[in-house]
Specification:
Layout lengths: L6 E4 L11 H7 L4 E4 L3 E5 L10 H5 L7 E4 L2 H12 L5 H5 L3 E3 L2 H9 L4 E2 L6 H13 L10 E6 L5 H8 L4 E11 L17 E4 L2 H10 L8 E4 L2 H9 L6 E2 L5 H10 L2
Parallel strand pairs: 1-2, 1-9, 4-5, 4-7, 5-6, 7-8, 9-10, 10-11
Antiparallel strand pairs: 3-8
Helix pairs in contact: 1-10, 3-5, 6-7
């Protein structure tokens, strides 16, 4: 790798396990240097006793729900963890539809024994259309049972709005919380790492975290987004992205950045 190769700042946590992050690897293979720097931290919502009107209580009664909806890998991880405490309900949930957007969320669900639908939809609003079409052709819809939407505390309105417009009944339960970290991110603390040419944003919350930091220098950095929702958040922040990945994968991001060089 050339020392003068463009440096890409990936505003995300590195993949757990393994020697190399998959986004770092995909960019390296296209001639970039890349480094991850998280701007968010996550915590699973407390649900120790599975009581009250929370996700654990909802998961105890799969017969009350038409299926599951998840739009983030962390929601899928929270689901898997909660089902560990509910072994008698696992088979019933595995038999129900599970809707997910994005390959990583779908992969997490498959690892937990579910068979997700909708991962190729591209964004949450498009997933809403997939859900509506599926529910209307499914016998579960006749019973008018709602879908159980497992989400974070900072979830966007695109999917709920689409489901309401399609008259698909659903209820949501918060299973994890997203908290904004404080900067700086453009330079490493105490290191001689170069100033990045690119910054890649992976969520609207990441855009918000960077804006709130007040760190100088972001105007000089070229910006990219992993998907249309984050691209919209960048535009609303006054930072129109130069590159938008066509799908939320390392290869699509590497392609988008390479086309701009």
């Amino acid at each position: 790798m050339r020392d003068d190769a463009p440096l890409v700042l990936l505003l995300r946590s590195r993949d757990e396990g393994g020697d190399e992050d998959r986004y770092e690897r995909a960019l390296r293979e296209r001639g970039f240097r890349a480094t991850c720097r998280p701007v968010l931290r996550f915590a699973f919502a407390g649900d120790d006793d599975f009581g009250g009107d929370d996700a654990g209580a909802a998961l105890r009664h799969p017969d009350r729900w038409a299926g599951l909806v998840l739009t983030s890998p962390r929601a899928a991880q929270a689901l898997e963890e909660m089902l560990r405490w509910l072994p008698d309900q696992v088979a019933a949930w595995e038999a129900k539809p599970a809707f997910a957007v994005g390959p990583k969320t779908a992969a997490e669900l498959r690892a937990g024994g579910l068979a997700p639908t909708g991962e190729e939809s591209g964004d949450a609003e498009a997933l809403g259309s997939v859900i509506a079409k599926n529910v209307r052709s499914n016998e579960e819809a006749a019973a008018e049972r709602p879908l159980l939407f497992l989400c974070g505390n900072r979830r966007r309105e695109a999917l709920p709005n689409r489901l309401r417009a399609e008259e698909v009944p659903f209820e949501e339960r918060v299973v994890y919380e997203t908290h904004l970290r404080t900067g700086p991110w453009l330079t490493s603390d105490g290191s001689d790492e170069a100033f990045p040419e690119w910054a890649v944003f992976f969520s609207p919350s990441g855009v918000e975290a960077v804006r709130q930091s007040g760190e100088a220098g972001w105007g000089a950095v070229r910006k990219a987004a992993l998907g249309p929702t984050t691209a919209t958040a960048l535009r609303e922040a006054g930072w129109p992205p130069e590159a938008v990945a066509r799908e939320p994968t390392p290869e699509a991001l590497a392609d988008a950045l390479a086309k701009c060089e």
